[in-house]
Amino acid sequence: MLEAFDAANGWQKSEEVQLLFSMTPPSAFVYDADYFPAGALASNHLRLDRTRPLGIGGQIGSFIVMPTGEMALFSTERWRDNDRPSADDLARMNALRPHLARASLIAARLGLERAQGTVAAMERMGLPAAVLSSNGRVLATNPLLEAMPAMFLPVAFGSMAIGDVQADLLFQQAIAAVRSEIEPSVRSIPVPARQDRQSIIVHVLPLL
Known about the structure:
Layout: H1 2-7, H2 10-13, H3 15-20, E1 30-31, H4 32-35, H5 38-42, H6 45-51, E2 56-65, E3 71-79, H7 87-124, E4 130-132, E5 138-141, H8 143-146, E6 152-155, E7 159-162, H9 165-179, E8 188-191, E9 200-203
Antiparallel strand pairs: 1-2, 2-3, 4-5, 6-7, 8-9
């Protein structure tokens, strides 16, 4: 069920997921009906069309914000005949939350170490490189890329832009395609020369 939902880009279309980025994450496990606006739950097609017919009710969930800027989400489903959790149910989940937070932090650090190792390997080959998250946030760069400030520009929210309007348009489209889990129309982006820089080709490659 979740695989089909994911294949249809349900996470990107979910009103609940979009609300996560505009609401303050709770510091404990909460019942979804006590956290989300009623309208968001009423319009959740995964709930209405898929889980409720199977007897699945609401969710208990918690969000843990990482120092890297990422967010870890932990969620458990409730049966409809025992939907609303008791205070003891929430207390048991919250007793696990510190351990889940540590596990999330370890996973985030491992991802950051992998990103740093990738750009270091590219530097040894003489290639400027950066590793970006799926939302375009820069995770790691190497000194060769950092030495090209006229080519690669820092922008809001920790993201990166290319110092050419047309090339940057293709670059941002490629990042957006990765975020939506579709194949970018262009992965190799030519950037023309200017007085302060040579022409280059920027390659956008997925890290599996």
